[in-house]
């Protein structure tokens, strides 16, 4: 496979970041400087900054994220991160992000290709959210959420919106803009007081207690890969 892909699969960097490492001459293959068009086979010895890269096993972890945990690998303010929480030996990173004050399903993986595609808007991966809002929800608000809401970064794409209770709405989105659900609900006059992601790309965490995680099954990984054309 191509060198950047090999580095991504080894959990070293995304493919794009791997290209940068290669361009900077930090990657060697069998002792020779690697190039963007270098192909690597299993027997080749790949080193980054002189350190051997082992093709680590791919890990895919499903976390039921609690509130108060940040979706990064390390936090300059020292707050707990989702990576600390899953405590995986493999260098897994979160796929996309959930706000510190959002709970629910979050995928972490060292599978660079898969993570890249799942997070890419082109693949429009389905995400389901349940929001508790201030006040009593109205039919026009639900219709507006479904049709598309004007936000400062553009109108949202059509979504599925369903009332689950007097002050509770379920939204199924194929976009993933920053604080999108909070901003959409606010825009239709119903600020969010509690937000939970209940579904991601056909997966759910109903059987995983909050704060805990589990590895995806092989079938689940295969289904994800098919979903994004891998
Ligand atoms: N929308 C939000 O507002 N917050 C999240 O964490 C995810 C989606």
Helix residue percentage? 10-25%
- The overall pLDDT average reads 93
Q: What is the H/E string?
A: HHEEEEEHEEHEHEEEEHEEEH
* Number of DSSP strand runs: 15
What's the quick description here?
The chain has 230 residues and is α+β, with helices and mostly antiparallel strands. It contains seven helices and 15 strands. It has three domains: 3-53, Structural Genomics Hypothetical 15.5 Kd Protein In mrcA-pckA Intergenic Region, Chain A, CATH 3.10.290; 60-121 and 203-227, Pseudouridine synthase I, catalytic domain, N-terminal subdomain (Alpha-Beta Plaits, 2-Layer Sandwich), CATH 3.30.70.580; 126-200, Alpha-L RNA-binding motif (Alpha-Beta Plaits).
Describe this structure in words.
- This protein has 230 residues and is of the alpha+beta class.
- It folds into three domains: 3-53, RNA-binding S4 domain (Structural Genomics Hypothetical 15.5 Kd Protein In mrcA-pckA Intergenic Region, Chain A, Roll), CATH 3.10.290; 60-121 and 203-227, Alpha-Beta Plaits (2-Layer Sandwich), CATH 3.30.70; 126-200, Alpha-L RNA-binding motif (Alpha-Beta Plaits, 2-Layer Sandwich), CATH 3.30.70.
- It contains seven helices and 15 strands.
- The chain has helices spanning 3-9, 15-23, 82-86, 112-119, 139-147, 180-187, 218-227, and strands spanning 27-29, 32-33, 46-48, 51-52, 60-65, 93-94, 102-109, 127-133, 150-151, 154-155, 160-165, 168-173, 192-200, 203-204, 213-215.
- The strands form three sheets. Strands 5, 6, 7, 8, 11, 12, 13, 14 and 15 form a nine-stranded mixed sheet that branches.
- The model has no long low-confidence stretch (mean pLDDT 93).
- Uracil is lined by residues 98-99, 102, 179-182, 195.
């Amino acid at each position: 496979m191509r060198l950047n892909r090999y580095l991504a699969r080894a959990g070293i960097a995304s493919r794009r970041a791997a290209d940068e490492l290669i361009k900077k001459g930090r990657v060697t293959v069998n002792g020779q400087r690697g190039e963007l068009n270098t192909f690597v086979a299993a027997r080749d010895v790949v080193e980054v900054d002189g350190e051997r890269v082992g093709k680590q096993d791919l890990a895919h972890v499903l976390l039921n994220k609690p509130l108060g945990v940040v979706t990064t690998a390390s936090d300059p303010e020292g707050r707990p991160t989702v990576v600390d929480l899953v405590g995986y030996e493999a260098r897994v990173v979160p796929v996309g992000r959930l706000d510190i004050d959002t709970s629910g399903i979050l995928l972490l993986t060292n599978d660079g290709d898969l993570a890249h595609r799942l997070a890419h808007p082109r693949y429009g991966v389905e995400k389901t959210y349940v929001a508790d809002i201030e006040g009593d929800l109205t039919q026009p608000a639900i219709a507006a959420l479904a049709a598309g809401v004007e936000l400062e970064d553009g109108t949202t794409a059509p979504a599925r919106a369903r009332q689950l209770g007097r002050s509770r709405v379920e939204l199924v989105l194929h976009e993933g803009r920053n604080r999108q659900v909070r901003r959409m609900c606010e825009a239709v006059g119903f600020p969010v007081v509690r937000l939970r992601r209940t579904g991601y790309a056909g997966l759910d965490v109903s059987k995983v207690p909050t704060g805990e995680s589990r590895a995806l099954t092989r079938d689940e990984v295969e289904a994800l890969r098919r979903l994004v054309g891998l």
